Amino acid sequence: MATRTVDSVDNRPAVTLSGILRRVLKALVIGLPIFALILLIFYPLAAITLQSIFPNLYAAKPDLTLQLGLIGQVLSQKRTYIAIFNTLWISITTAILTCTFGTLLAVLTERTNLPGRRVFRLLVWLVFFTPSYMLGEAWTLILIPGSLPDQYLHFSKTFIETFLSPLGVIIVLSLKAFPLTYLAVSAALQGLGSEFEDAAHVVGARTARVWLSINIPLLLPAIFAGGLLTFGDSISDFGTAATIAQNASVPLVTYQIYSAVYSSPVDFSQAATLSLVLFALTIGALFLQGRLLRARSFQVISGRTRPARRVTLKGWTLPAFAFCVALFALALFIPVLISVLTSLTHFLERGLVPSNLTLGNYTSVLQDNTNGAGALGRSFVLSLSAASIAGAVGLPIAFIIRRTTLPGRRLLSFLTVVTVAVPGLVLACGYIFAWNAPFLAAIGIGTPGGLRIYGTLWGLLAVYIASGLPLAARLGIGSLDQISQSLLDTARVHGASLLQLLTRIVAPLMRASLLSTWLLVFSGSMFALATSELLYPAGQPTAAVVIIKYFNDLRYSEGMALTVLTVIAVSIMLLLLRAVPWVVGHSLRRRAIRVNARAENAPIAEL
Amino acid sequence: MNRFTRAFAVIGVLLVVGQMVLTGNISRTLALQTTMQATMSATMQGTASPLAACDKATGLTLYAAIGYDTDIAKAYTAASGIPVNLVDDSTGPLLAKISAEGSNPQWDVAWFDGDAAMQSLDDQGLLSHWVSANIASYTDLGLKVLPTNRAYYPTGVTSASAIAYNVDKVKAQNLPLPKDWNDLLNPIYKDLIAESNPSISGPSYQHIASIATIFGGVDKAKAFFLKLKANGLKIYDTAGPSLTQITTGNRVFAIVQDAGVYGRINAGQPLGIIYPTSGVGVLPSVMAISSKAAHAGCAQAFVNYILSVEGQNTIAGGDPTEGDLYYIPVITGAQTKVKRQLEGINFVYLDIPAYAKAANDYKAWFRDNIAQ
Q1: Inter-chain contact A262–B7, Cβ cutoff 8 Å?
Q2: Which of A98, A123, A352, A332 shows the shortest CA–CA distance to A226?
Q3: Are residues B367 and B248 in the same domain?
Q4: Fewest beta carbons less than 10 Å away: which of A341, A598, B156, B243?
Q5: Cβ separation of B240 and A551 shorter than 8 Å?
């Protein structure tokens, strides 16, 4: 961990006007993100937590009867512990699997001459866009007896039963989540030069040895960050819990929350208590990560970093290529194929015969201005805004946590981690309690003609930002850890302000990571289900709301048609974002790296 | 670490105190309002409530989980000029939303399947008690599912517990059709029956409640379900997965709400329906107005429209692929265009207030003993 910090350098007295301005600006840079975090995440979560202690707080006849018994009741039930146990071992296995797949894929695409690596890099993003409920739904549609593939392949009963078990849940969760580790590790790899490899080669180490004992350990913060995100993602994943996990009869914590909130009489206390259980699991994972990483520094980006060389795979080319193809076949091609085929049929069960094929599902969805094309447009604009804001707020938060001595940064760090695992469903309920609270009328929120948050597109935007912010901050921390403090200190010595430091040095160095974060929040928002269902304004549904409505009405074909359209819309965004900066910015980046490399007066990286 | 703990504690204490002060005031005002409302509703029993004024500029906000809600809301706006702002979710999210909004409801009208769930909203004081003039046009069936306190209004009736079966499979395996509930315990039906989970599916709770009514008590129903489980009963989330098990041939019989099955039969799927002779649960679609509706006038006008022959016939003319359209009308003179069995179903009527209160325990038992 870095011992020197930004503030230790900043000890000039602020007497001049520009000094005061700088302080105000600094306060804004730091204060606004914290304010956003408190308002968007902390307050709603506090609201639903309080509700579980005072169950009548927001009732039609509110009172402050303290009922700790409700929490005790949940925590004394045997099935709560069965669910916790299942959630825990399934998520840990998933995290280990995704760390392995994600790291392997990142190294293969970033540092070897693997054929088709550019395509794989793009496909990772497509996997990431695929919402887990679509993946779960698609795999269930593939594996149930009488499904489209079953009509031709005739799966054995053992095969199906093997898949509809915890094993299937782990596979689907891993297929959904490996991009998280991939993104964290590949971003880190872009900052990891070849100088350590070169040094090792000089003393006679082989390539495999170099990677296992030098590069992989240096990548550990990124791998762990990815693993932690996967763990958080898995323990709070509803898409799988509601599709394949239920068919597999594995009770999970998420599923119990789902059933507490979505069945009459609604039991928010149970949902809040079980969310606290999820928080506790995440804190445990964080603590473990801290213990593992505390011992040493992992900073690799310094003034001396140079672009890395690629390893030639030679005889390993074919197995590596096969691994990538198999991974994407399971995570993307097969589920997407089944989704597309479903969207082209009148009825799934009648199979792929000409009389059963139609494009009608697409035309009927596209012609629906409120629920089809309109919903897609709304989701698109909201996700665009949410991604931009979460990215802009997440970076300063990461910076505050890792590179300043400001009071409360530990609390901030704690909040960003804990909230990674907040289920969207619980956050959404918290939003209703928090932003529909009758007492807000006293400050003009929610009154007719006053500021309205709940039940408007603003509220939906806020919850999308809130869902993306913890991810943005944690990914920011992951890549920030790699930037040498001495590089920043040098900048401060040369008179750069905090703002300049962020915008001129930190942001450009983290460009790849910022872009990843942006796309991540964007795709997450496009498919956000629980939050949208509970918070969308009357008459203005989003794409996910309409998709799930089709599924619930057993209109799989139309549901899959809208799903496919959403995936296409997101893919176009991905191509634009990846292609445009690549074309425009390629030469710029080359130049920046050359300039960087020439800054020979920077101190040596702390190792 | 010390500083962090302190900061956390201070924020927590501030929040608790703030909410105590603010909600304290509000609860007093609310108590007063509720008393006034109770007095008013007591005087209103029997005679139709005078309609409040409807502002066409604001319209009304409808929270609905009915398949044809979008179409009928559009038709209503076209006919009356009153805009309907629709939140259309499935019943689960809708109930969660209504419960979380609690004392500050943003909805005027709620509309979904299941009077037990609606009753639990009334138990929390969330529903307005008012008398619609259209009560006069209810059929006998409609009057049987109309609550005496007029907290909500049935708009149509389906059955929660029809037995759907795969016609082709039954023929191929030469299976006799079960006639009554106890027939399902016959070993020839082993591992062939599917049913939905009452912890997730609203209609499924009404089904297990009606089994208790038919068998003479919850304990006897529990014994029946244990025997059914011993005969290989498998529980799926909702009617969707249960029916998919039937259409794909993995299971042969599914106990589900009948409307969706008629929808699939209409679409050409090889399905049949059995109504057991000793009785099937009744499942009305119900509509209610919020006790604190901001647009009570427009809300009443909308409910009256749905309960009118004109409104019913507009619904009946909707898209026949929509499963929810296959209900039995409860308004005299309403036409039915879709094909479904209307007569000869032995409906059992539930003691709704009692089963709304028993819901938590009964569902938990089912989840722990049957579903898992």
Answers
A1: no
A2: A98
A3: yes
A4: A598
A5: yes
Is A606 within the bounds of a domain? Answer: no
Same domain, residue pair B212 and B131:
no
Q: Per the CB < 8 Å rule, is A408 touching B4?
A: yes
Please report which confidence band the pLDDT of residue B354 belongs to, taking 50, 70 and 90 as the band edges. Answer: very high
A355 touches chain B (CB under 8 A): no
Asked if A71 reaches chain B (Cβ–Cβ under 8 Å), the answer is no
Q: Which of A263, A401, A414 to mutate to test the interface with B (most CBs of B within 10 A)?
A: A263
Residues with Cβ within 8 Å of residue A521, at least 6 apart in sequence: A383, A386, A387, A390, A391, A464, A465, A467, A468, A471, A472
Task: Chain A: give the shortest CA distance to residue B58, in Å.
Answer: 11
Nearest chain B residue (CA) to A150: B248
Same domain, yes or no: A300 and A367: no
Residue B18 lies in a domain: no
In a domain, A595, yes or no: no
Contacts of A258 in chain B (CB under 8 A): 200
Q: Is residue A587 in a domain?
A: no
Q: Are residues B249 and B363 in the same domain?
A: yes
Put simply, whether B57 touches A (Cβ < 8 Å) is no
Measured between beta carbons, the chain B residues lying within 8 angstroms of A259 are: 199-200, 367
Contacts of B190 (CB under 8 A, 6+ apart): B231, B232
Q: How far is CA B89 from CA A287, A389, A535, B67, in A?
A: 39, 28, 11, 10
Regarding whether B170 and B151 lie in a shared domain, the answer is: no
Range of the domain at B230: 162-281+358-371
Q: Are B244 and A144 within 8 A, CB to CB?
A: yes
Considering the domain architecture, whether residues B291 and B318 belong to the same structural domain is answered as yes
Name residues 416-455 of chain A within 8 A of B (Cβ): 429, 432-433, 436-439, 442, 446, 448, 454-455
The number of domains in chain A is 2
Q: How many CA atoms lie within 13 A of B279 on its CB side?
A: 18
CATH number for position A415: 1.10.3720.10
- Which chain A residues are within 8 Å of B367, Cβ to Cβ? 259
Q: Which residues contact A236 (CB under 8 A, 6 or more apart)?
A: A254, A278, A421, A422, A423, A424
Q: Looking at the structure, tell me whether residues A263 and A144 fall in a common domain.
A: yes
Residue closest to A219 by CA, chosen among A107, A348, A61, A56: A107
Measured over the CA atoms of residue A332, residue A334, residue A338 and residue A340, the dihedral's sign is positive
Contact B360 A265 (CB under 8 A): yes
Does position B346 have pLDDT exceeding 70, yes or no? yes
pLDDT at residue B347 tops 60: yes
**Each residue's pLDDT tens digit, A178-234:** 988 887 788 778 776 666 777 777 777 777 777 777 777 778 878 887 888 788 778
Of A268, A538, A555, the CB nearest to B61: A538
Greater model confidence, A183 or B276: B276
Let me know whether B252 and B330 are in one domain. Answer: no
Residue A422 domain-assigned?
yes
Q: Mark whether A156 and A38 lie in a shared domain.
A: no
Q: Is the ipTM of this complex over 0.95?
A: no
CB A435 within 8 Å of CB A459: yes
What is the span of the domain harbouring residue A110? 75-347
- Separation of alpha carbons B256 and B274, rounded Å: 11
Tally of structural domains, chain B? 2
Q: A456 and A544 share a domain?
A: yes
Specify the 3-state DSSP secondary structure of B288.
strand
Both A457 and A545 in one domain: the answer is yes
SS3 for A213?
Answer: helix
Question: pLDDT tier at B171 (50, 70, 90 boundaries)?
Answer: very high
**Chain A from 21 to 50: CB within 8 A of any B CB:** 42, 46, 50
A287-326 residues touching B, CB cutoff 8 A: none
Could you give phi then psi for residue B323, rounded to 5 degrees?
A: -60, -35
pLDDT per position as a tens digit, B110-163: 999 999 999 999 998 899 999 999 999 999 999 999 999 999 999 999 999 999
